[in-house]
Amino acid sequence: MAGIVAWFWNERFWLPHNVTWADLKNTDESTFPQAEDLYLACPLAFCMFMIRLIFERFIAKPCALGLKIQTSGPQKAQPNAILEKVFTAITKHPDEKRLEGLSKQLDWDVRTIQRWFRQRRNQEKPSTLARFCESMWRFTFYLYIFTYGVRFLKKTPWLWNTRECWYNYPYQPITADLHYYYILELSFYLSLLFTQFTDIRRKDFLLMFLHHVATISLITFSYVNNMARVGTLVMCLHDAADILLEAAKMANYAKCQRLCNVLFIMFTLVFISSRLGIYPVWILNSTLFESWEIVGPYPSWWVFNLLLMLLQALHTFWSYLIVRIACRAISRGKVSKDDRSDIEFSSDEDEVQPPPQKHHTNGTNGAHGTNGYLSLSPCPYEH
Questions:
Q1: CA-to-CA distance for 218 and 212, rounded, in angstroms?
Q2: Rounded CA gap, 68 and 128, in Å?
Q3: Residue 337 has pLDDT above 60, yes or no
Q4: How many angstroms separate the CA atoms of 301 and 16, rounded?
């Protein structure tokens, strides 16, 4: 075990040439980042999760009810024992052959059975109230941490000149404000990583999981090898657009469509300008070229920049999705649905015209009964 630990913390990987861990030990005059400082983020992530539960229960939920946000989820499928057994025990997405067999067994139209399964899948999705509470929690945290980051960074020299991130590196003492900033961000993303499995599940679940892992890795990497200065710039830049996104979602859940549209336009402009403009020109230019010139590359430098490039690839993909939503919003006159949403809905034809029903011999909801036609309106925009 000692050999594995020594191999993992190899100085030649983590630190520039001729720098050792002993050089970065805390002294009476200076405090440097220590890997064990990050252990505090794990219990704080749990505390943050508990704070979230309290916030959603006693603050977000009353706000949602005050805005008359519905507590019920998508419209429920009418009870049917046979279809319910297939749904719970066999498959939630029956193929064409199974659909035809169920159609003969129930004397239902295939299209009606498809609609029943769609509505039954939607039935397991969270309500608009739950979505609003989740967004309000994230909005509150992003607003707080972004405000804190701006107030902290405006007093630092590296905000105005990114070359200051690399002068005298890695012998750059860490302040209490910077330590607090890092631990709070790391705790939040750790909590997001674990609650992603219990939160509203979306189509880009794996991409979001990859994003959280990359973010946590970046925060950890930059802290351990004392790239914390440029790390604060990355964190603050990313929090700016997230505030507007969560605000737009809350406005949409509250059916304030005009406000939602305005906020979404602002979010689009901020996201694309910050993630595809400022981030590569300001951040990547500093980490790739200024640091190469002033410090020079070493193994963890390559890993750090690889993670930053991975983040840029995710930015590009999400910008593509956002532009698609924006184009659709312009054509329809409002923001309607996010490509990442998991709520399934019928085509326009499905919603306007009920499907033809086969003649049935029994009017009950049993094996030979019909549960009727249930339409599902398009879901609201949700990121």
A1: 10
A2: 11
A3: no
A4: 9
State the average pLDDT for the chain: 84
Question: Which of 383, 334, 380 has the alpha carbon at shortest distance from 203?
Answer: 383
Give one DSSP letter per residue of 152-206, joined into a string: HHTTSGGGT-GGGGTTTTT--PPPHHHHHHHHHHHHHHHHHHHHTTTS---TTHH
Collapsed DSSP state (helix, strand, coil) of residue 94: coil
pLDDT at 213 over 70: yes
Residue 216, both tokens = 């946590």
Q: Report the alpha-carbon distance of residue 112 to residue 142 in Å, rounded.
A: 44
d(CA 214, CA 209): 9
What tokens does 281 get? 């020109």
pLDDT digits (tens, 9 = 90+) for 353-372: 334 444 443 333 333 333 32
pTM, to two decimals: 0.79
Q: What is the pLDDT of residues 174-185, one digit of tens each?
A: 999 999 999 999
CB 231 within 8 A of CB 152: no
The Cα 342–Cα 380 span in angstroms is: 11
Q: Taking Cα atoms as reference points, which of 171, 195, 247 lies closest to residue 15?
A: 171
More confident residue, 89 or 354: 89
The encoded tokens of residue 40 equal: 């505090």
Decide if 207 contacts 317 (C-beta within 8 A). yes
Task: Tokens 């549960």: give the residue.
Answer: 371
